[in-house]
Amino acid sequence: MYLTVFQVETQNFASLRPGISILLYGCIKFFTLNDQNMFLKLLILFIVIPIIEIAILVKIGTLLGFWPTILIVIATGILGATLARIQGFLVLTRIRTELQMGRMPAEELIDGLLILIGGILLLTPGLLTDLIGFLMLIQWSRKLFKEWLGKRFKQWVKSRNTRITNVHGEKP
Fold first, then answer.
1. Is the alpha carbon torsion for 102, 107, 113, 116 positive or negative?
2. Is residue 172 part of a domain?
3. How many CB atoms lie within 10 A of CB 44?
4. What is the Cα–Cα distance from 21 to 1, expressed in whole angstroms?
């Protein structure tokens, strides 16, 4: 086992699990206060997406009616919570299996994080976030999210702002 240290601009992060370090690095990189695009990201996250969600719900409400629209929102929440619970238990079982075999469950930890994010998105009212949440819960589409995150991480590593230092001299 080795210790991986990620140095992101002025902050240092250390972890005994490389998968967790990668996820932590990605979250910090996305929401870095020194980032020039931070205002744009927050604007999209807190204003544009809710406006789109409201517009979709209003449009569906005019087409189907008020109560069917409310029923759809509740049904997607219940279905999503159930699916997140099932997928979460499956990933937890895979994590335990990997640990019992003495292997690092990095892939499973990333799956677990994506399932958690997907479950949270499904609990928020709105059909756009529900669609993204369902895609994060389905195993074959979750693989696409993991591939995208891997490509983004490689881009971050290639940028001049990131240095990876391995304390014990082993390759990360």
1. negative
2. no
3. 12
4. 14
Taking the CB of residue 56, how many other CB atoms lie within 10 A of it? 16
What is the rounded distance in angstroms from the CA atom of residue 98 to the CA atom of residue 76?
Answer: 32
Question: Is the pLDDT score of 62 beyond 90?
Answer: yes
Contact 119, 30 (CB under 8 A): no
Helix (H, G, I), strand (E, B) or coil at 102: coil
11 pLDDT higher than 80: no
Instruction: Read off the pTM.
Output: 0.69
Domain extent at residue 47: 4-166
CB 56 within 8 A of CB 128: yes
Q: What domain count does the chain have? A: 1
At residue 54, the pLDDT reads 92
Question: What pLDDT band is residue 38 in, cutting at 50, 70 and 90?
Answer: confident
